[in-house]
Design a protein that fits this description.
The complex is a heterodimer. Chain A is an all-alpha fold. Chain A contains 9 helices and no strands. In chain A, α3 packs parallel to α8, α6 runs antiparallel to α9 and α8 runs antiparallel to α9. Chain A is elongated and about 75 Å long. Chain B folds into 2 domains: 109 residues, Orthogonal Bundle (Rna Polymerase Sigma Factor, Chain: A); 72 residues, Arc Repressor Mutant, subunit A, CATH 1.10.10. Chain B is an all-alpha fold. Chain B is globular. Classes of the chains: A mainly alpha, B mainly alpha.
């Protein structure tokens, strides 16, 4: 049997389905009609994404200024240029993904879990390329401090991102939470690169990068919780 | 293509508060959406409920549609979300009410159709949910691969793969049922 024959069978089978009750259609139309008000459509994706990038970078810079931007002062131009270029590109991708997640039927540039993996690999490769001090002094204690600081930075960044995206509608809150977590995690990593003066490769490759998956996992968990126990949606138009 | 441009114009007018556009959209898109729900093995009563709920959700989030974008992926992404929510709720309540008796509303068993017309439920019965959904979108709503990929938040390659696997299974199933001849000589 050819594909065309199967198409034909499926088409005829679908047409054989009973029609919708006209009274039901009338009821639906009347219920919508009684509450039809003009609404403002969401702005274009690039405007929302730019807003997300700016707000995340502002949060990262603000956090670093609060704690002291010692890390970036000790970096060479090459190190700073490469690290912040990579971070900028990843933040832009994460912002575009966050926007796609809250607009139903939009084209997703990349799956969120794949972006998380790319971010970890990309940052890991950048750190491996630039830093060659493999000492592991106070590896855990300093690492936990950086992980905590990065996650604390991710919290306001995720709240700011949620504020920008709150008019959208996430058809899948788990992946939307995951994407927002990645973006917030990148803000946390940016803050750590500005602030942290520990340039040991293992420290950077484990503890700084760990902010990303942990933040993404927290975002996904928040999305899951919202879907499972969140309140019913009310009109936001 | 013209049809999609019409839908886009209607959506924009709906966003501007035009009641006539809302009614036109409901009348035009509801039959295929209803068929889409029925193809997912929900009862007629539940398909009616899902249809109503989908339009209410569409109304709530109509501002998320952007001018110039295809309407069907936006709409079916929402419809799909409603169906998944419904499935989860039904599963939870079925688990709670297990002691009282089996839940019959979630998925009705496909019935055999007496006339020669192949029954959609029987045809799709052997397919996993994800493949059934893709076939329903491609064949019932007439969406393109790209549009289905957008509606299901996946890639075109993944949609193609699911459709291909579904066709393989359907072909085997139809051969087993002896329905291969339907395509050539069966009643329309």
């Amino acid at each position: 049997m050819r594909d065309r024959d199967l198409d034909d069978i499926l088409r005829r089978a679908a047409e054989a389905k009973p029609e919708v009750d006209p009274a039901l259609l009338n009821r639906i139309a009347m219920s919508l009609g009684s509450a039809t008000q003009p609404v403002h459509a969401l702005p274009p994706s690039w405007i929302l994404a730019t807003g997300l990038v700016l707000i995340c970078e502002a949060a990262a810079i603000g956090g670093a200024l609060l704690l002291g931007a010692h890390g970036v002062q000790r970096m060479t131009w090459v190190e700073a240029g490469l690290i912040f270029s990579v971070l900028g590109i990843l933040v832009w991708f994460a912002a575009m993904l966050c926007v796609a997640e809250v607009i139903p039927g939009s084209r997703r540039p990349i799956a969120p879990w794949l972006l998380c993996a790319f971010c970890c690999i990309g940052l890991g490769a950048t750190f491996a390329l630039l830093f060659h001090d493999y000492a592991t002094e106070r590896f855990v204690s300093q690492g936990l401090a950086c992980l905590g600081a990065g996650l604390m930075e991710a919290l306001p960044a995720s709240l700011a991102a949620w504020w920008i995206l709150k008019r959208g509608f996430a058809v899948n809150p788990v992946t939307a939470g995951l994407a927002t977590g990645i973006l917030a995690g990148l803000a946390g990593v940016t803050m750590l690169e500005l602030h942290c003066i520990n340039f040991e490769a293992p420290h950077l490759m484990v503890w700084h990068i760990a902010v990303l998956p942990v933040s993404a996992a927290i975002g996904a968990l928040a999305g899951f919780t919202a879907r499972a126990y969140g309140p019913r949606r009310k009109g936001r138009a | 293509m013209d049809s999609d441009i019409d839908l886009q114009l209607l959506m924009v007018r709906y966003q501007q508060g035009d009641f006539g556009a809302a009614t036109a959209l409901v009348n035009r898109l509801s039959p295929q959406m209803h068929r889409f729900f029925l193809a997912q093995f929900v009862s007629r009563r539940h398909a009616d409920d899902l249809l109503q709920e989908t339009w209410l959700r569409i109304h709530e989030v109509r501002h998320t549609y952007r001018r110039g974008q295809p309407v069907l992926p936006w709409l079916y992404a929402i419809a799909r979300n409603i169906r998944v929510d419904h499935y989860r709720k039904a599963k939870r309540s079925a688990a709670r009410e297990e002691q009282l008796g089996p839940c019959s509303d979630v998925a009705e068993a496909p019935k055999a159709r007496s006339a020669g017309t192949p029954d959609l439920e029987a045809l799709l019965a052997g397919l996993p949910q994800s493949q059934r959904e893709v076939i329903a979108m491609l064949k019932i709503t007439g969406m393109s691969l790209e549009e289905v990929a957008r509606a299901t938040s996946s890639s075109v390659g993944s949609v193609k793969q699911k459709a291909h696997r579904a066709y393989e299974k359907l072909r085997r199933g139809l051969a087993g049922l002896g329905m291969a001849d339907v395509s050539r000589g069966g009643p329309a």
